[in-house]
Amino acid sequence: MIVIQPFATVDTAHVNEVKKALSQHYALQVVILPTQPLPRTAQTQYIPEIARLGLGNRYRADTLLRHLKAMKPKGADYIIGLTNQDISSTKRIKGKIKHPTWLYTDWGLFGLGARPGESCVVSTFRLYRYTDEAGMRKRLRKIAIHEIGHNIGLRHCPKAHCLMRDALEKMQTIDEAKEALCDSCRRIVKKRIQ
């Protein structure tokens, strides 16, 4: 079972969109939990360079993963948090913060999922860029399916149009991906959730 944890003021229509997408792509029951506030403990520390970009408050995605895992109901296999607030994480390459460090210490994300794991989080905050509501919803579905894929154990896929492809910091990568897993990724999912 996958449970969806809506946070704060996320749009109910977006939550329902994710429920529908996850139900269609994974052979698991999907249940929506009551809305909860975002935990204050997940708010980012003040970083002057980020503040100058006018991005305001962010929430640490890794902290949200731990919070979600701790609140996952008994009987649920996976929990996905949904928010409309900006989320971030530290981006590293071979253990070192990517350069420029001021930017990648608190790098804004579309979503993050433990691999393998029990929790993931997706934010709509960045998904409206250069698109309308229908385009945003398509991106939201893809990212939710992708992050639950990581929970199930899928790695980033090298196939160009697989939904598990690494976004490589580009919205274009998400837009170009099909709303489907490639045959190889589907076989892995089938083995793991039977």
Commentary on this structure:
This protein has 194 residues and is an alpha/beta fold. It has one domain: Collagenase (Catalytic Domain) (3-Layer(aba) Sandwich). Helix content is 36%, strand content 18%. It is built from seven helices and ten strands. It has helices at residues 12-25, 48-52, 61-71, 101-104, 133-152, 171-176, 183-192, and strands at 2-6, 30-32, 59-60, 78-83, 87-89, 92-93, 96-97, 107-109, 111-113, 119-123. The strands form three sheets. A five-stranded mixed β-sheet has the order 2-1-4-10-9, with helices on both faces. A three-stranded mixed β-sheet has the order 3-5-8. Strand 9 (111-113) and strand 10 (119-123) form a beta hairpin. Helix 1 crosses helix 5 (133-152). The chain is globular, with a radius of gyration of 16 Å. It starts with a strand and ends with a helix. The model has no long low-confidence stretch (mean pLDDT 93).
Strand element count = 10
Q: List low-confidence stretches.
A: none
What would CATH call the architecture?
3-Layer(aba) Sandwich
Oligomer designation: single chain
